[in-house]
Design a protein that fits this description.
484 residues, alpha+beta, SH3 type barrels, Lysozyme-like, 6-stranded antiparallel beta sheet, 6-stranded mixed beta sheet, 30 strands, binds zinc ion
């Protein structure tokens, strides 16, 4: 069991925000993408994916109108966070299940049966002039949680969520869960003042779009130019040139005033693998450049069963004379522990044997899955599936646009997957986020719950059990068997 509690002085918080990922990103991804110092799973959501009770982010109400009589937390800046029912007056507002209001524990906690019982919990509260964040994957009742928060001196406190959603990363101290959640409470603390670059010396590189309403791109460096596109808040854009306080991006010119510099655009899949870029040098004959409209993904296997033929080995081979001579290239190699990108998605690659102008080579993103016999092919496929999900998300297409190499020119590739009965359907199902092992576990837990053998369904659908709970389950199963 792990339990993490963080107390962050409000004066030290640079930004307190709610990051909405609608159950599409893992904690590791949120951490990599936001750089937040403290991250805690946020509020609850309905079966249809909408947030429930109250949620307002950056001035935009995302839930239905919050219930008037329940106090949530509202703030414009971290320093003015308060427990309030006046969601209208705050840019950010979250209301789930208040436990302590005005220094007093509520006589009756506003939890429904879905939140009752003993299960993992997350919560936030105020102690003096600090923000308290709480998370545990151990089992507690709402009453016990309330008691613990009282003991810690909370003048106000609110349970955020309960069950298998409970997870956090408090400056590297974590409570882990595999469930993807709707939204996250994120805290960025003030850093030592960096030495500001002198005026006019903004550098090219990667920048994050900061306004909550996003940022327009224009055909030239100024507001007088026509709009050519827009970037949503949080997008990391690459600035290619700078002129008069405007930066040039792929979609056009954007004002540098609304960008913040980030070290590097980190892309991380939902199983926590950061994509490494190791590009084939420009000018090589297997890097024809050209523009790839990225309308699909094509799955290959490397066909190289030798020990050590992993993603790194293929990355160096692609930069070598042999691959150049054979005119072979593709966008990604995936093995059981790494994902390496060899070309930007937007460039043509020679991966499908359909010619320099072939419909696959010029429109599809090529992924090679390693089959080296000292690797774990099941894990490599799972990593490839996580990359497919990331690319579908980034490029906005669906599973219908994921093809076998075979689709384009009849080649028997991806060979192992094709040779396995049901192999391709199973791979697509993996890409769709289905984990057959987890689904089988959840079915088993539901069956045991229906027979009354266990009650903490979320706990048993998770993946970390205490030995005392396992012992209790075994005894409960034995008692059931004896009754039969
Ligand atoms: Zn192939």
């Amino acid at each position: 069991m792990s339990k993490q509690i963080a107390s962050v002085p409000l004066a030290e918080i640079a930004r307190l925000g709610i990051v909405v990922t609608k159950c599409r990103k893992t904690l590791a991804q949120v951490k990599a993408e936001t750089g937040a110092d403290y991250i805690l799973n946020g509020g609850m959501w309905n079966a249809d994916g909408s947030p429930c009770r109250g949620l307002k982010v950056g001035g935009k109400l995302l839930s239905a109108t919050p219930w008037g009589d329940l106090a949530g937390y509202g703030w414009n800046s971290a320093q003015d966070i308060r427990q309030t029912t006046d969601w209208n007056a705050c840019q950010n507002y979250i209301c789930t299940s208040p436990l302590i209001v005005d220094g007093k524990r509520l006589a009756k906690l506003p939890c429904d049966s879905a939140q009752g019982g003993a299960r993992p919990r997350s919560a936030m509260g105020i102690v003096g002039s600090s923000l308290l964040l709480f998370c545990t994957d151990g089992s507690m009742t709402p009453e016990q949680l309330c008691g613990e928060l009282e003991d810690r001196g909370c003048s106000s406190a609110m349970m955020l969520d309960s069950g298998g959603s409970s997870q956090c990363d408090f400056d590297g101290k974590t409570v882990r869960a595999s469930r993807l959640v709707h939204n996250w409470i994120c805290v960025w603390v003030k850093k030592e003042a960096a030495v500001e670059p002198p005026e006019g010396e903004e550098s090219m590189g990667n920048y994050r779009v900061t306004p909550s309403i996003g940022l327009n791109a224009r055909s030239g460096p100024g507001t007088g130019y026509a709009k050519t596109g827009a970037y949503p808040c949080g997008t990391v854009v690459e600035i290619l040139a700078i002129q008069d306080g405007w930066g040039q991006t792929e979609k056009g010119w954007v004002s540098m005033d609304y960008l913040e510099h980030v070290e590097a655009a980190r892309r991380v899949t939902d199983n926590g693998i950061a994509i490494q870029a190791d590009y084939i040098p420009e000018g090589r004959k297997n890097r024809p450049a050209g523009s790839n409209p990225d309308t699909s993904i094509t799955i290959h296997e490397t066909g190289n069963y030798a020990d050590g033929a992993d993603a790194a080995a293929h990355a160096s081979w692609l930069k070598d004379d042999d691959a150049e001579k054979k005119r072979i290239s593709y966008h990604y190699t995936v093995d059981d522990h790494a994902i390496i990108q060899h070309l930007p998605d937007s460039e043509t690659a020679y991966h499908a044997g359909d010619g320099t102008d072939g419909p696959c080579n010029t429109t599809s993103i090529g992924i090679e899955i390693c089959v080296n016999k000292d690797g774990d092919f099941e894990r490599a496929k799972a990593n490839a599936a996580s990359l497919v999900r990331l690319l579908m998300d980034e490029h906005g297409f669906s599973l219908e646009h994921v093809y076998q190499h075979n689709h384009w020119n009849g080649k028997d590739c991806p060979k192992t997957i094709r040779a396995t009965p049901g192999g391709w359907d199973a791979f697509l199902s993996l890409c769709g986020g289905h984990d057959p092992e987890q689904e089988a576990l959840e079915d088993a837990v539901d069956a045991l719950a229906a027979a009354g053998i266990l009650t903490a369904v979320d706990y048993w659908k998770g993946d970390s059990y205490s030995s005392s709970n396992v012992h209790a389950l075994i005894k409960s199963m034995a008692a059931y068997v004896r009754r039969q």
